[in-house]
Amino acid sequence: MANALNKKTILSEEATRPLTHPETGADLSPKALQVVEAARALFSEHGFAAVSMDQVARAAGVSKATVYAHFASKEQLFVAIVGQACRTYAETVMPEVRDAPDARTALTRIGRAVAGFLLAPRTMAIYRTIVAEGPRFPELARGYYDNGPRSFKRLLGSYLAEMTERGQLRVDNPRLAADLFCGMVRGPLYLQILLDCPDPEAPDADTVVTGAVDMFLRRYGGDAGAA
């Protein structure tokens, strides 16, 4: 059996940090989080371009000055929403992952969490906003990518490298391995949900995750990880 995963992995440490401002790096206050949640609901319902900071202030129950005291622009606010979604995900899944007894169990838990997160209505709403508004607001797309997919894959790559050091995996390019794993988990399901076009012949999420873990371990499994 593989060695138990260290309870102070890079990913678990990242998950315990408070949500921070996308520009300053300062921890977000309860009032700022209130603004973020109000903006998330508005952007999901009306789209990024159609929502004003006045509307955000009213929905959050604060003054417009308070909104601008925390976020200089709608773009900053949207990036904070992405950060909140990713941090909530990390705080949910990482305690389970760090307690996994072996690589297969850890990867299965990560895969199920990735599938659940990517296919959740809230995540899909963010992605649809980026696709619709990205060409007009390229800084919005960059903020989403840096604070969402890129941030998570960096963390996952660090975790895979850590497992390689323990002999549980044989990963020579952690970022590539993280990209491949996420792609395998997402691939068969993502477009169906995004386009609202269910495919009755498509496998369910658990089957997809099991297949992704099997393929990943055939390529990257270490002495104990492939067992």
Question: What is this entry, summarized?
Answer:
With 227 residues, this protein is mainly α. It folds into two domains: 29-72, Homeodomain-like (Arc Repressor Mutant, subunit A, Orthogonal Bundle), CATH 1.10.10; 74-220, Tetracycline Repressor, domain 2. It is built from eleven helices and no strands.
Shape: globular
Number of helices, where a helix is a run of at least 4 consecutive DSSP H or I residues:
11
Q: Let me know the number of strands.
A: 0
Q: Mean pLDDT, as a whole number?
A: 80
Bin the strand percentage. Answer: under 5%
Q: And the CATH topology of the largest domain? A: Tetracycline Repressor, domain 2
* Helix-strand topology string: HHHHHHHHHHH
Distance between the termini: 8 Å
What gyration radius follows from the Cα positions, in whole Å? 19 Å
The CATH H-level homologous superfamily of the largest domain: Tetracycline Repressor, domain 2
Which sheet architecture does the biggest sheet show? none
